[in-house]
Design goal:
homodimer, 296 residues, alpha/beta, Nucleotidyltransferase, domain 5, 2 domains, five-stranded mixed sheet, 10 helices, globular
């Protein structure tokens, strides 16, 4: 089968063997933010035309913002609680061009105790890729971090925190942007990051705490790089203290960001492990298998 | 005397009679963000050259970001606790060009219980313009809102909340920007604003609550205009619940924003009054009077 994780800013394709092994992967910057509905089939041909041709019978499954209102075709949200079988039942077909049909995995919606809705697209597929049968608390860090509650293998509720977006806005457009140095890969200033995490637990609130990035730069208490990691610590600290679920947490993410979240959970005295990578490929495979069993 | 409130984005000049009455005011967009140190004397000549010529003996007093490192000349912060007399003693001279000297009011700094610094420039002058002899809690809403504690007429501590800046970043650059309608003057959607204020007191935290602007738009629960006021309510609610001081609050600000904060305080069950306008002119006059008494 062919699985594609197609988000706002990125495209990841996986050629997956019948036993679930990832045979090949392709990554491109063709996120849905830059596409119109008529572009998708062409982008697929361009990126993985050879795969489609080589395996004309292979199922093609897509997850992520590709199924949003701004994507290829809107796949209505499945309402929590949702298990993998529910999603396999609700796949949304799209035409690849020559009569071939691909399917989009629907996103999830839930309502919290206040009746406020929340949504995800793509993360549900990664979560089901973990193949957790029991209960778990899951954290997917990112532009819009997700904190998810799994009960008996089903997603029963979740909450989004706009941590990554607010970080990017402050870094790129804010009045403190000029005081920050860009981050250079994996080199985390741990002391500054933990100072931010610690501050997030003190009185005054997030809108007050972030101003200290400015004042501590002004008084030369932080370098430009340290200030960036301090800001990251403040924001992630606020997120984890109030949005994360209780209990041992599984972090689903890759590279630097997943490591940073693990460090943050540990600093805050919360247990967390990082899940193996390629959760999206595993989830696409699992949903593909479930859907195949249902199709006569 | 001539008093000037010169901030990052604006310039307000007041011609003030010896009894404190404001005879004339001029407003310009020449904020310090667009100026270099050599520009200031020229801008003054351009904006109020006629006042300077007509009253060659008048004292000229400036407050605000004009005294910052990025301004005309850096006026070192006065450390809290600070009364108006302390500021009058620490005015920082600048040359107007023909041997005439103007003075800049220094900003204030303080450190909170965690040792984190905070700063203000310009607000101190407005606060002393209120001429409050006793104790008070003061709120100055804005891009960087200030919450100030006055004890026996002196500023003993304060905290900044970046409410206005975060609101502007989300409205202008964020992923929810496209879902919001621009605000149209004074017409506040009170129901949406109060829904945001109410949400700010619920679990989940600020980074989670602001995501509901997106989801509630997605589910057509809010119009674009209502969503803007809902976001405003979420942010102001978070600010006031954790950054404002206890006790009756005096709001120092003008127009729509001051009214919105008064509404927010009332909704949250906190007492607040809006101070009379032109607090900056009154503060510049008061500090000018104090300085004149000290000069032999």
């Amino acid at each position: 089968m062919i699985g594609i994780d197609w988000g706002s800013s990125g495209f990841r394709a996986y050629r997956i063997a019948s036993d679930g092994a990832v045979l090949e992967r392709r990554v491109a910057a063709s996120g849905i933010a830059s596409l119109t509905p008529t572009d998708y089939a062409a982008v697929l041909q361009q990126q993985i035309g050879d795969w489609l041709q080589a395996e004309p019978e292979a199922a093609v499954l897509l997850s992520g913002m590709v199924g949003s209102r701004q994507g290829w075709r809107e796949a209505a949200y499945a309402e929590c609680p949702v298990g993998p079988g529910d999603l396999a039942d609700k796949l949304c077909p799209v035409e690849l061009g020559d009569g071939r049909i691909a399917h989009i995995v629907p996103g999830l919606s839930c309502r919290n105790a206040e009746g406020i809705p929340d949504v995800m697209r793509g993360e549900e597929t990664q979560i089901f890729g973990l193949d957790l049968a029991g209960d778990a608390s899951i954290c997917l860090p990112g532009t819009h971090s997700k904190h998810v509650q799994l009960r008996a293998g089903r997603i029963v509720g979740f909450a989004t925190a706009m941590t990554g977006e607010v970080f990017a806005l402050l870094k790129n457009h804010g009045l403190i942007a000029a005081m920050l140095e860009p981050e250079t890969g994996a080199d985390l200033d741990t002391a500054a990051f933990e100072a931010g995490l610690a501050l997030s637990g003190r009185p005054g609130g997030l809108l007050h705490h972030i101003f200290s990035v400015r004042t501590r730069r002004l008084f030369n208490e932080l370098s430009g790089t340290a200030a960036t990691h301090y800001l990251s610590g403040i924001l992630i600290g606020h997120e984890l203290r109030v949005t994360a679920w209780a209990g041992r947490v599984v972090i689903v993410g890759t590279g630097v960001l997943a490591m940073r979240y693990r460090k943050a959970f540990a600093f805050l005295g919360m247990d967390a492990d990082v899940a193996p990578e390629d959760a999206a490929a595993a989830g696409l495979y699992r949903l593909g298998q479930l859907a195949a069993r249902r199709t006569p």
